[in-house]
Amino acid sequence: MAQQCISPRRNLIAVLLTYPQQTTKILSNNQKLIDQSLIQLMELVSSKMKKSGNYEAAQFLQNILDRISLEYLNNRTFE
Known about the structure:
With about 80 residues, the protein is mainly alpha-helical. The protein has helices at about 1-20, 25-30, 35-50, 55-75.
């Protein structure tokens, strides 16, 4: 069950990294995936990217993560 939960979230992260200029739209269209599981997965992916030397992508994910965490904690939507 946990694996089923992670796969769409991994896909969301991949889409965000592929289309960084469309972050707001992507998040808005995928609000149902924005939860604590996504936050934890993004932290893990960002950390692994940083360790492998992919600093720009890691920072990009961290910026999104900061925004998601704030919005998630305040129960807001992405617009």
